[in-house]
Amino acid sequence: MTDVDLEFARVRAVLDRPTLRLMSRPTSAVVLAVFRTVFDRDVQYVPADRMHLQVEEHVARLQAAGARTPANEQAEQPEQDARPNGRALCREWVAAQWLVRSNSPDGDEQYSLTSHALEALSLVDALSSDRALISESRLAMIVDAVHRWAARAEPDPDVQIRRIDAQIAELQAERERLEQGDVDTVDDARMRDGYTNISDLIRQLPSDFKRVEEAVATMHRSIVEDFRQEVRPIGEILDDYLARTDNLMQATPEGRAFEGAFELLRDDALLLRLRDDIATILAHPFADSLGASERRAFRNTVVILRQGIEDVLAQRRQLTATLRDQIVAHDVARDRELDAVIRSIERGLATWMEHGSARDRLPLGLLPATAEVGTLRERFYDPDAESVPPAIEEPDDDVFEELDVETLRRHGGPLLTELRAALRSAEADSSVDAFHGLPPEQRRPVELFGLAHLLTGHEDFESATHLAEHRTVRPDGSPVTFHMPTAALTDERHDRTPDTTNDEHAQEAR
Q: Which of 36, 178, 217, 286 has the fewest Cβ atoms within 10 Å of its own Cβ atom?
């Protein structure tokens, strides 16, 4: 192959990457705008239901504004306005490797951006900002990085010592200059330039961490697939996969880069110094020109670092847990049988989708058909089931005691006639005195209900101005005391004591 053929193959491979496919689509502006709106800088995961609703709303709004949307591309005629379907669009974006659908710790489905989508958003943010491609801060950053790594790569200890002595002398001269009050302040333009370069690096962090996470997930799927197809002894499988798990982060370039960053970011003192340095930069007067979102994004740098590390470690823990479960409960025959069934289902669906559409319905029985078998004996002969039940014994009428009318009255309702007569008696000044004047068999607890019924309408009783003890006697002879309002019985109120015929009929009925 010639040089141009090699370059053509390399360029075509790059252009086929999901990042550039997202950037080169006619509807890329709408898709990237939806991604930036739904996935804010502080939002990494969105529940599936909310994602579908937000995609439909944003795409419909842009479609109404005249933008070319993915919904129009899916329509049969380009000029017709197709109603956006959030679920279908998200499914299409998952297939294009721009979205990832996973399960949250609570078991609910959620969406997140892939490294390709994050890289596209980072590129858009970088191109949309006004900055100089060559600046003092960027060149100084390159020179400092080259000088630092050259010092680490130097094998001669004498040369390293001379480098350190030069740094000490430079820092000593800087310290003496500051002691003399000669402070070299940085103007707003230079600070703005340095902030822009730092923001460019920070903007690339989410896509870098996501790329490491996807590399671990790819390794996860590869290991699980290899594990299911293994036919070696379980001891050999265990040793092999435990070794691959231990060296997992060293097997890919992304994993090795993450290990180096993880060792650096595991230093809490370093992260604390980074947070203080960010606060110092934001305290400079140039930061007054920054927007609220820019200040928040710059201040959340440490949060982005910690969240990226936690996501990668969570993916690695999931891989370890899956391997452990596979090793403990591994059945080669069952896995192969399940894999064959799933593959046959996929072939059947592929054949059906060639001739069908998304709206076609296919009757699918969830349960197998009922087997046609003859009648089977469910139980054997039991002589006790065929025997005649014993005759019913005649009830003994002498079991129950005879009850007379007085016994029934003693356990019945209140005696309104006797209570009314006691209230009308001239010897009692209050209702409680009249009640206590009754014989014990007429001072049952149930009589208090009748007393309350007869005193209804008396102002002092209804307002409960006076509470008095009412000593009652149960039918078995045990005393019990209740507190309830009482009413004064004057000549004026004697006439107001209820005397209804219905009460007398009720008493006679009892």
A: 178
